[in-house]
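Narrative of accomplishments. A recurring question from our advisory board has been how the design workflow behaves on a single, concrete structure rather than in aggregate. To address it, we present the structure tokens for one chain from the evaluation set, followed by the sequence designed for it. No filtering or post-editing was applied between the two.
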């Protein structure tokens, strides 16, 4: 059986790894082992932060809705409870967008929630 030399395969794998680690500081972009570690950490952080981004956006929407609701004389919790009673199914993303961009429509939604 012929001997298999792995130089070409290893070089290709290392090249792909170093291309992915481009832009990092020092040996993390030049040497294979530190680049591999940096890449593994980066992938782990990316996975974690996809969840964190969802949490952060929800927090931001709630802050914006609360600010808009208080401008119309209602608290966030009273607004959400009123919307539930009035059976209005608007998610927080849409409510926050209305509070920021279209104050008149948001004001009408607050009045309906207050009436319920």
């Amino acid at each position: 059986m012929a001997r298999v030399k792995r130089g070409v395969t290893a070089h290709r794998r290392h090249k792909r790894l170093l291309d992915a680690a481009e832009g990092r500081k020092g040996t993390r972009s030049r040497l294979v082992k530190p680049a591999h570690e940096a890449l593994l950490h980066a992938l782990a952080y990316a996975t974690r932060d996809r969840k964190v981004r969802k949490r952060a956006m929800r927090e931001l929407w709630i802050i914006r809705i609360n600010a808009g609701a208080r401008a119309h004389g209602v608290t966030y919790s009273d607004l959400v409870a009123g919307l539930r009673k009035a059976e209005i199914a608007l998610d927080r993303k849409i409510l926050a967008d209305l509070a920021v961009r279209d104050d008149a429509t948001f004001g009408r939604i607050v009045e309906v929630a207050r009436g319920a």
